[in-house]
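Hey, can you fold this one?
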Amino acid sequence: MIDLNNVLKNSASLEVHAHWDPIADSTYNLHKKSPENVELFDLSPHEPIRKYKGEAFNAFLPPSTVAVGDVWELDLDKVIPFLFQFHPGATGELRHGQKGAFACLRALSTDYADITFRIHAEFTLATRPNPDWKPGSDERQEYLARFIPSQYTGRLHINLKTDSICDFSLALPPRNSNVDINDFGYADMVFVPCMELLATPTKTSDDIEWADAITSEEAHKRLELKFYKFAEINWRCLEEAIMESEETQRPIHVVLAWGPLDDESC
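Sure. Predicted structure:
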């Protein structure tokens, strides 16, 4: 067990670089339907380089003592400001889907701690006054365009001897159909090759002998379970399911999905 709550309170500032590629592919080319759309979805980082105070990264630390493999919830009010470096319309208040942010202590040694985290967020790109709004209702603004990433996964690597940050990254998983865009009531699934925040690492985890650790895959699975109850299901591919059904004489329940179940991009 370790208490990481105040380990970065005196940490030096850290320069973080933002990268955001244009949409490379889409299902319906919604982002190219009109000149207004092209301009709207021709996005780039609001701040390509930003210097953060070391204490800002306390947003990713646990509020109490934790052991390797433990998962804790992050305060969205402290985490979402990192996404403002991409666009000032970042919000953790998803209109649909599973909102939230969680972190997991992936590895620990005498001198280092490695934290993996996952954030669900979206970006409001344009709004206008809602013509149907009435006093007392919530929807005063009508959302014309939204950019909805599948998820952000990230890493915070800390030097416990110097109370400093060795490495920080936050990125959109680079798989096809990793973002939804909504525009004027229509939706499209698109591919953005790269969208990340990155600080230059001073020491890689390959150099470290961890006293206790779980794999990155296991850490990501534990985070996924915090968002989706169905992640507890032991899914099988069709071929394996048919073979097991024949062996056990049990029926098959088939789920056909257009895109992955375990994120917010579809």
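The two ends are 38 Å apart (CA to CA). Let me know if you want another pass with a different chain boundary.
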